[in-house]
TrEMBL record:
One of its GO terms (molecular function) is proton-transporting ATPase activity, rotational mechanism. Gene3D superfamilies: subunit c (vma5p) of the yeast v-atpase, domain 2, Vacuolar atp synthase subunit c, domain 1. Subunit of the V1 complex of vacuolar(H+)-ATPase (V-ATPase), a multisubunit enzyme composed of a peripheral complex (V1) that hydrolyzes ATP and a membrane integral complex (V0) that translocates protons. V-ATPase is responsible for acidifying and maintaining the pH of intracellular compartments and in some cell types, is targeted to the plasma membrane, where it is responsible for acidifying the extracellular environment. Subunit C is necessary for the assembly of the catalytic sector of the enzyme and is likely to have a specific function in its catalytic activity. It comes from the Eukaryota. One of its GO terms (cellular component) is vacuolar proton-transporting V-type ATPase, V1 domain. Pfam families: V-ATPase_C. The lineage of its organism: Eukaryota, Metazoa, Chordata, Craniata, Vertebrata. This is V-type proton ATPase subunit C. Coiled coil: none annotated. V-ATPase is a heteromultimeric enzyme made up of two complexes: the ATP-hydrolytic V1 complex and the proton translocation V0 complex. The V1 complex consists of three catalytic AB heterodimers that form a heterohexamer, three peripheral stalks each consisting of EG heterodimers, one central rotor including subunits D and F, and the regulatory subunits C and H. The proton translocation complex V0 consists of the proton transport subunit a, a ring of proteolipid subunits c9c'', rotary subunit d, subunits e and f, and two accessory subunits. Keywords: Acetylation, Hydrogen ion transport, Ion transport, Transport. Belongs to the V-ATPase C subunit family. SUPFAM superfamilies: Vacuolar ATP synthase subunit C. It comes from Anabas testudineus.
Amino acid sequence: MTEFWLISAPGEKTCQQTWDKMMVVTTRTNNLSTNNKFNIPDLKVGTLDVLVGLSDELAKLDTFVESVVKKVAQYMADVLEDSRDKVQENLLANGVDLVTYITRFQWDMAKYPIKQSLKNISEIISKQATQIDNDLKARASAYNNLKGNLQNLERKNAGSLLTRSLADIVKKEDFVLDSEYLITMLVVVPKTSYAEWQKTYETLAEMVVPRSTKLLFEDNDSGLFSVTLFRKAVDDFKHKARENKFTVRDFQYNEEEMKADKEEMTRLSTDKKKQFVRQLFFTHTFNIRYGLPVNFQAMLLQPNKKNMKKLREVLYDLYKHLDSSAAIIDASMDIPGLNLSQQEYYPYVYYKIDCNLLDFKV
């Protein structure tokens, strides 16, 4: 299961006692959840007014950061294309899988100095998330352009012999090159007309080289034949070929151009792979409901799926004394600082973390 409950409750005489008490009711007497301490440093909290004012901002920031993380995950799935089953193993945060990152969470002091106020830290996170969002948009645009250009080239290298690129089909030895008088032409002939082609190609113009035709390639419907003739007979040959429902491809063998096309395909394919992103910016915020001084134990619970309802009841019984109104508060009420319209309300701080960042199953 990839769902976690991040909860926080006031410390007893010590925060360790709060942890021990929660462990007893959720793991030692039953099997309701797997628990980890969630280490949060001593932050510069400020006044209660500041916390209440910051609460709405944090809720908006949390929604924004979550949307960015999900967009990064979806972008990675798009880039992996046929290997979407490998998406989850490549969704990494700081080089580790998301469950490991969350259960062993460590505050990054360098990025988010705890001497800064909570407001300043939230602004730092907001700026970083905005930058990542902008970078992602630019990267996604570049990827879509690469993908479109590559698809165009791939279409040129597939499909009917009437339209597809011939660069990967023909070879230098298939052509008479550097001749002042002779030229090799390529003709698409329906399979049902092979016999007719062999019988008539030498007579389609006066100056066709006898026995010069050769089948170079064929698909389900047609074959690509080469034929050599004098340059002065080209126009007449094309006209007569069209009358007989043979299609002359407008193609001149140019090794440099063909090499450039292949290199462009390789370059686009390589650039497309480079768009793969392995690292995720993964930050979660949660609301502070209680007054000062700060004395809380943050705990990360991974619920047993079959016992989620029971776990919720046990937590309520354990912490209902913290806020007797929690049982009767209507979640549709709009109380400043509590954001009840966006989440359920409990007598303890509660924040749900879902590690399944993709809308589809992989």
